Amino acid sequence: LAPFTKLELLNLSSNVLYETLDLESLSTLRTLDLNNNYVQELMVGPSIETLHAANNNISRVSCSRGQGKKNIYLANNKITMLRDLDEGCRSRVQYLDLKLNEIDTVNFAELAASSDTLEHLNLQYNFMYDVKGQVVFAKLKTLDLSSNKLAFMGPEFQSAAGVTWISLRNNKLVLIEKALRFSQNLEHFDLRGNGFHCGTLRDFFSKNQRVQTVAKQTVKKLTGQNEEECTVPTLGHYGAYCCEDLPAPFADRLIALKRKEHALLSGQGSETERLECERENQARQR
């Protein structure tokens, strides 16, 4: 492809491309579509603006340094950390979709070179148990971390203080940092499907009344109900969310999760737990 010195758009989707694909020599290429292939490693040139590479086996992406903003769509691949995208790929990103990958920890500091450009970050359906680093994402509008394994919504989430849309639905959240503050422009706040300590919701919402109002509006819009439906009948509510008074929140929740894991592995899990696992597996296979 090297002779195509003025090529700006290349569509190679739904082919049988595999292993390493080096397109770095296409210095004028702005839009690349590689959806539905078997590529494992990808290299692109300095002019890339839009990269569609969902449904591959990509574990590494390299981008030559360029000045333009980037929109990168890498859903359903084998990315394990943000640094699997090199510095060029993490610089001046506007839209980053890493849904359905294998990421277990995210460090927001690794997106510092996109702090003034990043608008949309999708990390749904990974395996994240920890979020690190604080960067002020000045233009971030949407943050989707739903269907992960996060237990604590900590101070690192101040990086997303200006968002209008945020979801941490279906995690393992127990506690929220009560000092967190969000923009008055917040329109969508979804924390359904977690295992909160009631005290943490009380502390957080007492300092964030506007967020509590938006949370109730979000649940009403999505479910038609004023509160989320609790999967465990004994749970109570604070605001729109299910919660439980836990003397030792992290320890109590860890014990409950271990018991659930053991029951599922031994075939003794409840019907609700089995259906929950099936739903998650089906969603990850879409």
From TrEMBL:
Keyword hit for Repeat: yes
Key word Coiled coil present: no
Keyword tags: Leucine-rich repeat, Repeat
Gene3D superfamilies (alphabetical): Ribonuclease Inhibitor
SUPFAM superfamilies assigned to the protein according to its UniProt record, in alphabetical order: L domain-like (SSF52058)
Pfam families cross-referenced by the UniProt entry: LRIM1_dimer, LRR_8
Domain annotation LRIM1/APL1C-like dimerization: ranges: 248-286
InterPro entries noted in UniProt: Leu-rich_rpt (IPR001611), LRIM1_APL1C-like_dimer (IPR048481), LRR_dom_sf (IPR032675)
Top-level taxon of the source organism: Eukaryota
PANTHER family with a match to the protein in the record: ASTROCYTIC LEUCINE-RICH REPEAT MOLECULE-RELATED, LEUCINE RICH REPEAT FAMILY PROTEIN
Name by which UniProt lists this protein: LRR Toll
